[in-house]
Design brief:
Helix content is 67%, strand content 0%. The termini are far apart. The longest helix is centred in the middle third of the chain and has 36 residues. The protein folds into two domains: 246 residues, Growth Hormone, Chain: A; 208 residues, Growth Hormone, Chain: A, CATH 1.20.1250.20. The relative contact order is 0.15. By secondary structure, it is mainly alpha-helical.
């Protein structure tokens, strides 16, 4: 069997370009080429976090220099109007659709992804995400909000879900020795997508802006083209290891580690176990606390510290002039940027640390340390310690990101790797739930506190204690996560039948087969440079904004 004309162990005859059997790795393939492929996709779909950069320009798409408002227009009217500018609140529904559709599509098509393979899933993700942005551009040109919702929100949201889970199972199988680190590298990209995309979008809008256009639809088209190239490059770079493959020189952990199974649970059975729902609660509660803070980070810093941010501690928020409000808004933008960096870095740091201390212990750290930090935030605000307050929330956001990156490895430990991508997809419904719970808790409690006459500097105190309580519930759920009983695992014959199509040719049941070796050779370094250079550019832009916070 010739490796130059056939995939390793499976002939190409009768196998489509996108099929799973087509992408089984051959001898000499370097596993370090897979994380850059995953990053290429995640960095593109991660722009979902940064879409708010378009809201203000789109809110004056008709008026260009100032919004053209129509009194009494309803949301239904806004969907079809061509003469009135859209309100930011109407556009914000796209953000909601993103994450609702992400969770739903990941849950619905996760099983298909496991059968079809990451290349086909990545390909469809690119079509949906980039095609959705193009449809949204048409919506801007024709000034039809429903097209914006359909394109970016619905079609793009499906692309988000498929793109988000496409590399998870593959990376865990390529890095059984470093599960957390591998998924952390990819999911770090989703957190960093806005860090690159938002400043790029700003540059493009400024380039295309004219007296008759705010430059958004042109920006959509250019970014869709750029993202399509990157996502296709990532999708076609995916490879999967043959069944039975393991890294050269690596042996599975000793059986005494009860929290890491060597068996597999079928997708049809995973949600029937209490462990699935306990881990669902663990993710939901960790994310609910963090996502509530992300949405209110800027106003929270401004209202709590007010004049202190300008060296005028005697001035409360209500006492600030228009110019002073503008100044502290710029400082708060630096705070938001700093939180973004810790969100991204935490995804890699905590997921990698979980390889050393275990997934369950990592979540214990998230919850125990998070409870302490949330509960102490009102104290830091009370004594006016900006440094402690900022440091506390940087750590909190690192654990928020770390929770996303660690959960796929946690699932692989408990349920095995055969269906981990699909199980992860179903678990992401916890994210959709948290996206409602977190902001509602923070926003509504804040409004109630203000209505009750509580000073602005203290309106978040009660919220912090509520969020600490959420983490306490998460701590309890994590405590009850135990290894599954044998009745839930598939029989060896069933697993063997599923893996038959990806068996390595003329080899024993396990081994490296000459695959996965090479480390950071020239080809791997080039692949990492393609995704690494945009990441470094985004970090630099973010740091420039962050310097204002401590300037």
């Amino acid at each position: 069997m010739s490796a130059s004309t056939e995939t390793y162990g499976v002939g190409v005859a009768g196998v489509g370009l996108l099929d799973r059997e087509r992408i089984i790795a051959r001898p000499g393939f370097n596993r370090w080429l897979v994380p850059p492929a995953a990053l290429a996709i995640h960095l593109c779909i991660g722009m979902a976090y940064g879409f708010s950069v378009f809201w203000l320009p789109l809110s004056r798409a008709v008026g260009v220099t100032a919004p053209v408002a129509c009194d009494g227009i309803t949301l239904a009217g806004a969907l079809f109007t061509t003469s009135c500018d859209w309100r930011v609140s109407d556009l914000g529904w796209i953000y909601t659709l993103f994450f609702v559709l992400l969770g739903c599509s990941a849950a619905i098509w996760g099983g298909w992804l496991e059968r079809a393979g990451p290349r086909k899933a990545g390909f469809v993700s690119a079509l949906c995400w980039c095609g959705g942005i193009v449809v949204a551009a048409v919506g801007v040109i024709t000034h039809q909000l429903w097209l914006m919702w359909l394109g970016a929100g619905v079609i793009g949201g499906v692309g988000l879900g498929l793109g988000y889970i496409s590399p998870v199972s593959t990376l865990i199988k390529w890095f059984p020795d470093r599960r957390g680190m591998a998924t952390g590298m990819a999911i770090m990209g989703f957190g960093g997508g806005a860090m690159i995309g938002a400043p790029l979008a700003d540059i493009l809008m400024n380039t295309f802006r004219t007296e008759t256009s705010v430059g958004v639809w042109q920006t959509f088209m250019v970014m869709a083209a750029i993202y399509f190239v990157f996502m296709m490059g990532g999708a076609f770079s995916y490879r999967i290891p043959p069944a039975g493959w393991r890294p050269e020189g690596w042996t599975p952990p000793a059986a005494k580690n009860q929290m890491i199974t060597t068996k597999h649970v079928h997708l049809r059975d995973a949600h029937k176990t209490k462990q699935f729902w306990l881990i669902w609660a663990v993710l939901c509660l960790n994310v609910s606390a963090g996502i509530g803070v992300i949405g209110m980070a800027s106003p929270m810093l401004q209202e709590i510290f007010a004049g202190s941010l300008l060296g005028l501690p005697e001035l409360r928020f209500a006492d600030l002039s228009k110019e002073q409000l503008t100044a502290i808004a710029a400082i708060a933008a630096g705070f938001t940027g700093l939180l973004s960096l810790f969100n991204i870095g935490g995804r890699f740091f905590w997921a990698s640390l979980s390889d050393k201390i275990g997934r369950k212990n990592t979540y214990y750290v998230f919850f125990l340390l998070g409870i302490l930090l949330y509960a102490s935030a009102p104290w830091a605000a009370g004594i006016g310690s900006k440094v402690f307050f900022v440091a506390a929330f940087c750590i909190i956001l690192s654990m928020y990101g770390g929770g996303f990156a660690t959960i796929p490895a946690y699932l692989a430990d408990i349920f095995g790797t055969q269906f981990v991508g699909a199980i992860h997809g179903r678990l992401l419904t916890a994210w959709a739930t948290a996206g409602i719970i977190g902001p509602v808790v923070v926003n509504y409690i804040r409004e109630a506190q203000i209505a009750a006459g509580i000073p602005r500097a203290q309106v978040y105190d009660f919220t912090m204690y509520i969020l600490a309580g959420m983490l306490a519930l998460g701590l309890i759920a994590n405590f009850f996560v135990k290894p599954l009983s044998d009745k839930w695992y598939m029989k060896d014959e069933e697993v063997a039948a599923m893996q038959a199509k990806t068996k390595a040719a003329e080899s024993g049941p396990t081994g490296s087969f000459g695959i996965g070796t090479g480390g950071f050779d020239g080809k791997a370094l080039a692949a990492w440079a393609v995704v690494g250079i945009p990441i470094l550019w985004g970090v630099w832009i973010t740091l420039q904004k962050t310097f204002v916070l401590f300037g």
